[in-house]
Amino acid sequence: MADLFASIQPLHAALDYHLERHSVLASNVAHVDTPGYKPNDLARVDGADAASFDGVLGVAMARTNEAHLSVGNAGTELEGRTFQDLSAGVGNDGNYVSLDREAAKVASNQIRYDVVSAIVSAELRGIHFAATDAKG
């Protein structure tokens, strides 16, 4: 028997990633007035191989250049890697946090979380529908 929740597992990992990224970005916002603070961000390190990516989203992935990062080994959990994001520039107090930039990142991350959450809900409704013999 096939695993009923196999289609939800990659989505679960994506929800975890966006939740962790939200925490990192919220910490940046909290330190907007801290002198010398350097904001962090979370980069996604996707362990899915091209075949599983194609299976989940119906889109094939291919490396177009050998210098590009490999997509990793199949079965590896979705992980994030923190890095300092100094692209906003430094203020007079040595703080690199731009409130507008961080707010935009938080909003974008929230939208992505909401989309993945809606997909998970739809998948679970489908499983519930099948489990109840299409009675509701």
Features:
mainly alpha; 136 residues; 3 helices; 9% strand; elongated; 2 strands
Strand order across the largest sheet: 1-2
Number of strands: 2
- Amino- and carboxy-terminal Cα gap: 23 Å
Q: How many domain units?
A: 1
Give the helix/strand class: mainly alpha
Biggest sheet character? 2 strands, antiparallel
Helix content: 40-55%
Shape: elongated
Mean pLDDT: 79
Order of helices and strands: HEHEH
Strand content: 5-15%
Poorly predicted regions are 47-57, 71-78
Describe this structure in words.
The chain has 136 residues and is mainly alpha-helical. It has one domain (9-131). Helices cover 46% and strands 9% of the residues. It has three helices and two strands. The chain has helices spanning 9-30, 50-57, 99-131, and strands at 40-45, 79-84. The protein has a two-stranded antiparallel sheet. Helix 1 runs antiparallel to helix 3.
Question: Brief overview, please?
Answer:
This protein is mainly alpha-helical and 136 residues long. It has helices at 9-30, 50-57, 99-131; strands spanning 40-45, 79-84. The chain has one domain (9-131).
Could you give the topology of this structure?
Elements: H1 9-30, E1 40-45, H2 50-57, E2 79-84, H3 99-131
Antiparallel strand pairs: 1-2
